[in-house]
Amino acid sequence: MVEAPSERSVTMTEASKLIAASPEVDRYLDGLPPELAGTLARLRDGIRGVAPAGTVENIKWNGPNYALDGVDRVTVGTDPRGKVRIVMHRGVKIVDSEGFSFDDDTGLVRWAAADRGVIALDPAEIDAHRDEIVALIERWLRLV
Fold first, then answer.
1. What are the phi and psi torsion angles at 141 (to 5°)?
2. Does residue 118 contact residue 31 with C-beta atoms inside 8 Å?
3. pTM
4. Scanning 23, 77, 111, 118, which has its CA 20 to 30 A from the CA of 91?
């Protein structure tokens, strides 16, 4: 497993492993309250550190989104209750999920469908479970 950076700023060695940062996501984070922005920035750095080459970071559905081969795979945002919401999916269109499975060994994911999982936690809980969440997202991006 690739180890995700633990701080907002990353070293040049770590930066060379990261997918390209989106200026859209930078602006999105700049518009959030500092505590929430910090949590999402740390999560973002982790995702960028483990995402496969070719992953594109953008804004979609009012939050950072990560797509592979033009298909949205992970979308991060906040909900009205102030929770951080991470959606692991296989794109906008319904995909046949027969035979598809993904093992969530953390128990953090609530499965809306066999191929659409949601993590919704308070920012402090996201920070506490960041390494586990990033590892799940890494596996998700490599599987689907």
1. -65, -30
2. no
3. 0.83
4. 23
